[in-house]
Write a structure and sequence with these properties.
Helices cover 48% and strands 14% of the residues. It is α+β, with helices and mostly antiparallel strands. The longest helix is centred in the middle third of the chain and has 25 residues.
């Protein structure tokens, strides 16, 4: 049984750069899983995946040419159907055996055993293992079908479909070509190197020779991770030589890595006069349009230099550098033109242009939305006792840059350009900063708005969106969230919790709903639905942050609408749970909850005159004793102290349940004991539902 390394490579036209790493890893993973499922791995040593602009490939060490034979047992049919009363094969069994190619005399060797509640016949046979030559093409074809490709294309006269035209297929097992046909291509040993630096078609001697041959003869670094690391090393070294830094570059690095096969970094330059344009515009132009890496000084200010990752390594790169500088100049000129034209019009003067811009056909125009945001931001700022006029002004102008030339060309700059234009118009720094940051946080880990006025505008923007779409019944479903409501919900929660802000979420939802025209929000119960949606997002957010599930459930069971108090409550419950009294009190609390669930109607306050047993009297007096202290701690938001005081009730609670029958036959006694338990539960569960801590 021969064992050797395996290579599979698809040589294609240029693949989509942003999808390349995922395509490469998925392609290789599916092939590896296919080999493993057919027992073709002599040893599971993993695999290496390769992804370059024009190729997807995998190499797997220790692959068998033929899998070992194996015993296969299959159920034939129930005994009562297979055999007659005398134990002879029925017609149904004989027909089944004929279909499977099993000789009738083999019935004597069948095993009888229980299958569920009925006895069945099972047949065991030796089955030859899979042959690599026979199954590899189908494994590769299955891997191709499993790739995350949103849109397929055809090429030439064949019927094959792929994300890009495929020109060659290499399948080698050691030095041997594995025969097969995939995407209308016969497998071979030929590949191609770099479009310009390679010597042409390359014959691969063995599967093991794939990477070194491509490196030496093809001038291609096929391994995505190695190519990315090589680019990063060159970028960092070149930036350091320029006494500059790269800023944030990880996303662009991944994309550029998918565009080049043999990366070399060069330095480009543009006229310093362009630095008069806001640097965000120039950075976006260079990164998004040209895939250049801007350079910054030690203070983070943009320099008039940039790094080019070329696909060519030349002794004299002057033509490459000059060509790239010539290409970027018109882009920078466009950015400067847009900026200069936009500054001729104030943000206020742009507001009428928002009227014909539809926000949503059921929720009106962007101008109508701006009017709602202005009112809501002022209301939120008033609740925070900050400058409501500044917050309202920022909300009024926050969307005006959407109709500017710069944002029309670069939508990613919305808010950022609004800040520049607001300052140009003479607006205060508070207003300008709130305009820029009202979209924050835009994603997990993004910075929060700075300052309460900015937070008020950001909250207004997100709450208006959520209330509006929930109010017309446009809720997120499954993985579909076209209006970004999950992101908006997490943004609201993070602002309220992390700023932190002493605002009630339910009241904020009500404030937002009040800003819509009467009769516009027609979905029944949408405010309660939205609050449920927010709590679900909060539960996931807290669990992802590492909080214990039972601690989160205990706090959220009381549905706290002051998000700024959630973290202190979590901390308090975590401290309480570590106390020696916690387990017993949580179990007792769970018992109390279960007892009270069965009570119908209202219960009066416990009457001291009806207390009979010493244990219930002791518990009553302890509850009366600690209640003011617990309530004081809760009112002062000293939740840890409140729970520590409650821990002192353990002895009295244990004695009560050990020596008192709650469900006494005498009605008044029973009702009084239930009333005492209700009072105890109300006292114990002011911070969290402690019963959730009980296993």
């Amino acid at each position: 049984m021969s064992v050797a390394s395996l290579l599979v490579e698809l040589l294609t036209e240029e693949l989509p750069p942003k999808a390349l790493p995922r395509l490469g890893e998925t392609f290789a993973t599916r092939i590896f899983e296919g080999l493993k499922a057919r027992d073709l791995l002599a040893e599971d040593k993993g695999f290496r995946w390769y992804a370059a602009p024009r190729r997807l490939a995998i190499t797997v060490p220790a692959v068998r040419a033929d899998a070992p034979a194996r015993e296969v047992t299959e159920k034939i049919m129930p005994v009562q159907v297979a055999l007659d009363a005398e134990g002879r094969p029925t017609a149904a069994l004989l027909k089944k055996l004929e279909a499977k190619g099993i000789a009738p005399e083999a019935v004597a060797s069948f095993e009888r055993r229980m299958d569920g509640k009925a006895e069945a016949l099972f047949y065991t046979r030796n089955e030859a293992g899979a042959a690599l030559d026979e199954v590899l093409a189908s494994i590769v074809q299955d891997a191709v079908k499993a790739l995350p490709i949103p849109k397929l294309m055809r090429w030439g006269a064949g019927e094959a479909q792929f994300v890009r035209p495929v020109h060659k297929l290499a399948m080698l097992h050691g030095p041997r070509v594995v025969p097969g046909r995939v995407l209308d291509l016969e497998a071979g040993r030929l590949t191609m190197g770099h479009r310009f630096m390679s010597r042409g078609a390359i014959e691969l001697a063995t599967a093991e020779a794939y990477e070194p041959t491509l490196l030496a003869e093809g001038k291609v670094i096929p391994d995505f991770a190695e190519r990315r690391a090589d680019i990063e090393r060159q970028l960092v070294a070149t930036a350091a030589a320029q006494n500059a830094s790269l800023g944030e570059y990880a996303d662009l690095l991944d994309e550029v890595c998918a565009l080049v096969e043999h990366p070399t970094v060069y330095v480009g330059e543009f006229e310093a006069e362009f630095l008069a344009v806001p640097q965000e515009c120039l950075i976006l132009t260079m990164r998004a349009n040209q895939k250049y890496f801007p350079l910054f000084d030690a203070a983070g200010k943009l320099l008039n230099r940039f790094l080019i990752v070329s696909n060519m390594n030349l002794a004299d790169p002057s033509n490459i550098v000059t060509g790239n500088q010539r290409v970027v100049r018109p882009r920078l000129s466009d950015a400067r033109f847009f900026f200069e034209q936009d500054r001729k019009h104030t943000l206020e003067s742009r507001l009428p242009r928002l009227a014909p811009v539809v926000y949503h056909n059921k929720l009106g125009s962007q101008l109508e939305r701006v009017e709602r945001l202005e009112r809501l931001a002022g209301c939120i700022a008033g609740r925070l006792h900050v400058d409501a006029a500044a917050a309202a002004r920022a909300a009024r102008l926050a969307k005006a840059d959407l109709v500017s030339d710069m944002v029309g060309e670069f939508p990613e700059l919305q808010g950022i350009m609004g800040r520049y234009y607001a300052l140009n118009d003479g607006e205060g720094a508070v207003v300008a900063d709130a305009i820029q940051s009202h979209y924050q946080p835009r994603f997990a880990g993004d910075a929060l708005p700075v300052g309460n006025a900015a937070c008020a505008v950001a909250l207004a923007d997100k709450l208006d969106a959520m209330v509006g779409f929930f109010g017309i019944g446009q809720l997120p479903t499954g993985d579909k969230d076209p209006f970004g409501l999950r992101r908006a919900a997490l943004g609201v929660l993070r602002i309220l919790m992390e700023a932190p802000l002493p605002l009630d979420l339910a009241e904020l939802i009500g404030d937002a709903a009040a800003g819509f025209k009467p009769g516009l929000l027609t979905a029944k119960g949408f405010e309660a639905q939205l609050l449920d949606f927010m709590f679900e997002r909060l539960r996931n957010l807290l669990r992802d942050a590492g909080h214990a599930v039972d601690v989160v459930d205990a706090v959220l069971a009381l549905r706290p609408t002051r998000m700024d108090l959630v973290s202190p409550k979590l901390d308090a419950v975590r401290v309480f749970r570590a106390l020696p009294e916690a387990e017993a009190l949580a179990a007792a609390n769970k018992r109390i909850v279960n007892i009270l669930k069965k009570v119908e109607g209202e219960l009066p306050e416990p009457d001291i005159a009806l207390l009979q047993e010493e244990a219930e009297k002791a518990l009553f007096h302890r509850v009366v004793e600690v209640a003011p202290l617990v309530r004081s701690h809760v009112a002062n938001e000293d939740y840890t102290d409140a729970l520590c005081v409650l821990a002192g009730l353990r002895a009295a609670v244990d004695s009560f349940f050990d020596g008192v029958m709650v469900m006494a036959e005498e009605p008044l006694t029973r009702q009084n004991r239930l009333a005492l338990l209700r009072q105890l539960a109300g006292l114990m569960n002011q911070v969290a539902d402690l019963s959730r801590l009980s296993a």
